[in-house]
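Q: How would the structure tokens look for this protein?
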Amino acid sequence: MTTFAELPLASALQQKLAAAQFTIPTPIQVQAIPPALEGNDVLATAQTGTGKTLAFLIPMIERLSREPSRQVNVLVLLPTRELAMQVNEEYEKLRTKALPKAALVMGGVSEIGQIRSLRTAQVIFATPGRLEDFLDRKLTDLRHVKMLVLDEADRMLDMGFLPSIRRIVSMLPRSRQTLCFSATLEQSVASLVHEYMRQPVRVALGSVLKPAESVQLKAYEVRPGEKLDMLRQLLYAEKGQTLIFTRTKRGTQRLANELVRDGFNAAMIHGDRTQSQRNGALSGFQEGRFQVLVATDIAARGLHVDDVAHVINYDLPKMAEDFIHRVGRTGRAGSQGRASTIVTGAEVLDLRNIERTLKLRMERQQLDPSAADRPKRFVQNTLASRTLTALPGEVFV
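A: Here is the predicted structure in token form.
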């Protein structure tokens, strides 16, 4: 398969693919879609940003077109609200007129509309916690599900969703088709696969423990007290959009406020933000209204922004695998990207451990002393000409 036009798909779906300018499949799509269309279980692992979402949406929509039903036919489980919403958006691009809208089931937002949508839905995109709650209240019926998709399976297990997943899957027919997509295949994921899949077709592309070759990796070892100056220096030099990762919610809040005071159009995402605040930050970043997005690892997966020029690790992640997911937010779909990591003190040793685990070596860079007074000049210039944007219900101080 060299183009999507070669796939044995309904003409309406082919037209939708062409309208969305999906023409040439990625390697993961080439290998995963045909066996999925044939009804096989598929276990696929590939680096983030390689097109796994479309690899399950196409066979899913084709199956719905062939086998219309008044019950829920397809269940897609995802780890975060943001990922659920973005996959739903991709589904809407490809949904034919014969298919109803999907039900989006997730926490953090009003459940009234979600319950209403379940009455006519053939597809459910859900985070495990909210779906389990709806099942306990008998608000939906999964006895007729013919296809189960586990997206970002390793992330769901990292977040502690295994008990919920077990309860949900126990309510599904054993004869279903199961598609499992993951960036890594750790032992916990392998056990899940063994339990819930039937002789799956295995698709593995590239090293899932290495960043994509399109991402340029650099590390900046600075003295204590120079970390924020180093970050500013990187942001001054960057014309595109930048995603900054921190480790804690409080650190995210503090850093975003600091950058706003410096004159940057910055927004933030972390677990304590309301869903409307998270939606506003993400959509503003996607649309280019925010130059900088500061986030915890909640944005390390499932964040689909086409033009992230630069990812900066202001704090190191807890696990080496999370480093891969973070830097995978740039250099997507073959485009070039940059990923910088700033470390000081004991973090230098942690960085070397990450390099050792991932079998890579980042190019070392230094803070430019000549730029020491640039923050003050930058703030004076930008505050005079830029209108800062606050999200609904928040004030930067």
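Residues 4-205 form a domain with the Rossmann fold fold (CATH 3.40.50.300).

The first strand starts at residue 42 and ends at 46.

Upvote if useful.
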